[in-house]
């Protein structure tokens, strides 16, 4: 379905409810620049580290697209676990898993309540930004502590610039991108208002500091387009 959520005036903050879930795949592809390329890179780099029967967690898995693509691109069998606190998202994820014949364990849970046992790979695509900073850093620390040796954490985030002029240019460039995807200025403004104080982005430097402070030995940027970035962190 086509994303038309913000064609009407908003009356609440952004949330991953039934209305959003019903158009979420279209929303991602039209709202996140190079989303498919980011997903492709995530999978390709992940497969460099994964062995048969390794455990993979996707935090905020939404409709399970990344885990499904990971399974489709490997002959190895993995223990795939998708976590989301939106029942509407997980209902669509379950239907997609059945359609593609991919076995994924889907959990309707708070990310802080998961133990991440035997994790070799943890994926988090545009999820940490919705978690309050102090809780975000605690979660990343928990992920680090539960990853196996040589385990990896791949995450994508909307980022901001520490320079005010560049930050304004980031926003302008992103707005132009959304217009090319068919969103009106009204829709763009409505979504921005709905996300106010819900999505809290870090700078590139803040994201990397959070990762290193958690104990990871290395963190590098895999991909970046203006204010969207994908990072890889390695536990050694």
TrEMBL record:
Keyword Cell cycle: no
CDD domains per record: AdoMet_MTases
Enzyme category, top tier: transferase
Entry keyword Magnesium: no
A matching Pfam family: Methyltransf_25
Assigned EC number: 2.1.3.-
Function: Catalyzes the conversion of S-adenosyl-L-methionine (SAM) to carboxy-S-adenosyl-L-methionine (Cx-SAM).
Name used for this protein in its record: Carboxy-S-adenosyl-L-methionine synthase
MF terms (GO), sorted A to Z: carboxyl- or carbamoyltransferase activity; S-adenosyl-L-methionine binding
Residues bound to S-adenosyl-L-methionine: 35, 60-62, 84-85, 110-111, 125, 192
Family statement: Belongs to the class I-like SAM-binding methyltransferase superfamily. Cx-SAM synthase family.
Keywords on record: S-adenosyl-L-methionine, Transferase
Biological classification of the source: Bacteria, Pseudomonadati, Campylobacterota, Epsilonproteobacteria, Campylobacterales
Methyltransferase domain: residues covered: 56-151
Superkingdom of this protein's organism: Bacteria
Alphabetical list of PANTHER family matching this protein: CARBOXY-S-ADENOSYL-L-METHIONINE SYNTHASE, TRANS-ACONITATE 2-METHYLTRANSFERASE-RELATED
């Amino acid at each position: 379905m086509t994303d038309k959520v913000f064609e009407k005036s908003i009356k609440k903050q952004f949330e991953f409810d039934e209305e959003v879930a019903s158009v979420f795949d279209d929303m991602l592809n039209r709202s996140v620049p190079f989303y498919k390329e980011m997903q492709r890179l995530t999978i390709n780099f992940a497969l460099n580290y994964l062995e048969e029967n390794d455990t993979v967690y996707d935090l905020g898995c939404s409709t399970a697209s990344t885990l499904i693509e990971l399974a489709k691109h490997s002959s190895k069998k993995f223990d795939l676990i998708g976590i989301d606190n939106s029942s509407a998202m997980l209902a669509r994820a379950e239907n997609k898993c059945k359609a593609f014949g991919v076995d994924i364990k889907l959990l309707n849970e708070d990310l802080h309540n998961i133990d991440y046992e035997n994790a070799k790979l943890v994926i988090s695509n545009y999820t940490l930004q919705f978690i309050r900073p102090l809780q975000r850093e605690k979660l990343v620390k928990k992920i680090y502590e539960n990853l196996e040796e040589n385990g990896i954490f791949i995450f994508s985030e909307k980022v901001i610039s520490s320079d005010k002029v560049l930050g304004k240019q980031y926003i302008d460039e992103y707005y132009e991108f959304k217009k090319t995807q068919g969103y009106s200025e009204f829709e763009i403004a409505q979504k921005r208002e709905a996300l106010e104080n819900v999505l809290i982005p870090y700078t590139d430097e803040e994201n990397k500091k959070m990762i290193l402070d958690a104990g990871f030995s290395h963190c590098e940027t895999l991909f970046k387009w203006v204010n969207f970035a994908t990072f890889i962190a390695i536990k050694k």
